[in-house]
């Protein structure tokens, strides 16, 4: 554990709490992509297959459970809650996310650090997380206006990935056998996807105005 990973974990946790706050406080999931939330649920379910077979630390196990439970809960609320599901922007959230799942799984079969069951699904989860935000960004660009909590949710997700890149750089220089190059490259790609959003987020913050994305 290092400070960069800890800050990354905390900002990731904050992003989830912000999203849950938006859903519970407003009883609405307007502006949130169900497709992205489903992809994140798949990411955590496949990444943490070792939850009950490999113990690293209490902190590690708790974080795994929190990420799995929260992602599944968000999907459930958006799909089945009698009030919240009515606010889902189904007509705008049309990104064919299953293509991302298929492409990432095929890529994981071809490019992995060790051809084993857990390593293939670990690589798959890393690749999928790198592009999981795409349906959300597309939805926001289609709608134009971004409400405050939705904007903060995406902002903290981007910060989380940025600190994880610093975590990997730190580990590369301080650990003798650190070889998670797949995570490093995928993290850089994922952070790059946020570049456009961060630009408009900064402009709205600087001008103290409502966040808007170009169509």
Explain how this protein is built.
With 215 residues, the chain is mostly helical. It has one domain. 71% of the residues lie in helices and 0% in strands. The protein is built from 9 helices and no strands. The longest helix is centred in the C-terminal third of the chain and has 27 residues, at 148-174. The chain crosses the membrane at residues 55-77, 98-115, 121-141, 153-173, 179-202.
Strand-helix topology:
Layout: H1 3-26, H2 34-47, H3 58-80, H4 97-110, H5 117-131, H6 134-143, H7 148-174, H8 181-193, H9 195-207
Q: Give the oligomeric state of the chains in this entry, treating copies of one chain as homo and distinct chains as hetero.
A: single chain
- Report how far apart the termini are: 41 Å
Query: What percentage of amino acids are in beta strands?
Result: under 5%
Structural class comes to mainly alpha
Using the CA coordinates, give the radius of gyration. Answer: 17 Å
Average pLDDT: 86
Work out the helicity level: over 70%
Shape: globular
Number of domains: 1
Number of helices: 9
**Major sheet: size, sense and barrel closure?**
none
Q: From N to C, what is the helix and strand string?
A: HHHHHHHHH
């Amino acid at each position: 554990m290092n400070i960069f990973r800890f800050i990354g974990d905390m900002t990731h946790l904050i992003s989830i709490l912000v999203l849950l706050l938006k859903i519970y406080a407003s009883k609405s999931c307007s502006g949130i992509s169900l497709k992205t939330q489903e992809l994140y649920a798949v990411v955590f379910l496949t990444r943490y297959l070792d939850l009950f077979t490999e113990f690293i630390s209490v902190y590690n196990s708790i974080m795994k459970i929190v990420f799995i439970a929260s992602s599944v809960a968000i999907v459930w609320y958006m799909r089945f809650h009698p009030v919240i599901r009515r606010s889902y922007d189904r007509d705008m959230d049309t990104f064919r996310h299953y293509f991302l799942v298929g492409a990432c799984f095929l890529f994981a079969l071809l490019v992995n650090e060790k051809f084993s069951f857990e390593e293939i699904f670990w690589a798959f989860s890393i690749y999928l997380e790198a592009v999981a935000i795409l349906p959300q960004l597309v939805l926001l660009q289609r709608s134009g206006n971004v409400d405050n909590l939705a904007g903060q949710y995406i902002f903290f997700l981007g910060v989380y990935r940025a600190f994880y890149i610093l975590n990997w750089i730190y580990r590369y220089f301080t650990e003798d056998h650190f070889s998670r190059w797949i995570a490093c490259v995928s993290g850089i790609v994922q952070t790059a996807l946020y570049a456009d959003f961060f630009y408009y987020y900064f402009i709205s913050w600087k001008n103290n105005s409502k966040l808007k994305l170009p169509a």
